[in-house]
Write a structure and sequence with these properties.
It is found in: Endomembrane system. Keywords: Fatty acid biosynthesis, Fatty acid metabolism, Isomerase, Lipid biosynthesis, Lipid metabolism, Membrane, Prostaglandin biosynthesis, Prostaglandin metabolism, Transmembrane, Transmembrane helix. One of its GO terms (cellular component) is mitochondrion. It comes from Hibiscus trionum (Flower of an hour). The chain has 321 residues and is mainly alpha-helical. The chain is built from 13 helices and four strands. Strand 3 and strand 4 form a beta hairpin.
Length: 321
């Protein structure tokens, strides 16, 4: 019982914002890390006796408490990055996203919605019939309906939503604009040659697409094998179109280019993700756990940023029906 009470006393000492107890605990930690002073031995032994602990137990207790404090501080930073200023001017009653599950542009929009905790419904569009968007003159995805208002084009959608959430916000800076354009004009074009690089990877990708997509049983079988075969050959044309000689090398180069752009910052936006961070994360999220995405994380330095974004964006705010 004496040992338990001592640990509790020590924990309270380290958790206080200041005062004698905190200084004593810090002094105790310093005394256990150095053997150069006999006075430090005497002081730490007296403190250990006072708390009902042996000196080794005191050292372990201080170390574990400080480790816990560091971990808590890290989690608090992630939570801070997720925090959003309250928006009284954007409280939509219904948000519906018409999408293909694996579409990188659709996933850009979802990353923005998830990060901003905007609840939304998903309508998975059948890529063969597209019957779900026959009501719209726009025949591509994503299409977003916000309280009945149609929005199209992923970047335009995000800009409109951003201004509604942050009506007094300034125009994004040149750096943010540059990297958002880089996502649309370069990064997305590197993805298809990678996820359909080989027949096995094409089948892996279409297994994911057909599992999450809006297909009947027959369409799923046809789409998986016929689609994988078709996209395998299409990816070779895309590879030539965008002057890609080595698919993986191009993917790794793009990942490292993004890491270099961060310049040691947690996010391109600094302490919080900006729209460029969300765009990169969004287009990479569908491939992260495919073979190409695993290879990318293993062979580049993007993994730490990606994991940070994954934690900060958090769970999808999608409404499941």
């Amino acid at each position: 019982m004496r040992r338990v009470n001592g640990l509790a006393t020590l924990s309270r000492a380290l958790s206080c914002g200041g005062g004698v107890e905190k200084r004593l605990a810090q002094a105790a930690l310093m005394s256990t890390c150095s053997s150069s002073s006999s006075n430090s031995h005497i002081f730490s032994q007296k403190l250990a006796d006072r708390l009902g602990l042996s000196r080794p137990s005191l050292a372990r207790s201080v170390s574990w408490t400080m480790l816990f404090s560091a971990a808590a501080s890290s989690l608090a930073q992630d939570a801070h990055a997720k925090e959003k200023p309250p928006s009284e001017k954007f409280l939509p009653k219904e948000v519906v996203l018409y999408q293909y599950e694996a579409c990188p542009f659709c996933n850009k929009v979802k990353a923005f919605l998830d990060y901003n905790n905007i609840p939304y419904k998903i309508v998975e569009v059948n890529p063969i019939s597209k019957k779900e968007i026959k009501w719209s003159d726009y025949k591509k995805v994503p299409v977003l309906k916000v309280d009945g208002e149609q929005m199209v084009d992923s970047s335009v959608i995000i800009d409109k939503l951003f201004l509604r959430i942050n009506p007094h916000s300034s125009i994004p800076d040149d750096e943010e604009k540059k990297w958002r354009e880089w996502v649309d004009n370069h990064l997305v074009h590197v993805l298809s040659p990678n996820i359909y690089r080989s027949t096995s990877e094409a089948l892996e990708s279409f297994d994911y697409i057909t599992t999450h997509g809006n297909f009947s049983f027959t369409e799923r079988l046809v789409a998986k094998y016929a689609g994988a075969a078709a996209m395998y050959f299409v990816s070779k044309k895309l590879k030539k179109k965008y002057n890609i000689t080595d698919e993986r090398a191009a993917l790794y180069e793009a990942a490292e280019t993004w890491v270099d752009a961060l310049k040691g910052r947690h996010y391109l936006g600094g302490s919080k993700p900006n729209l460029a961070d969300l765009a990169v994360f969004g287009v990479l999220r569908p491939i992260r756990y495919l073979t190409s995405g695993k290879d990318m994380v293993e062979h580049t330095h993007i993994g730490e940023w990606y994991s940070r974004m994954e934690n900060t964006v958090g769970e999808p705010s999608r409404i499941k029906e």
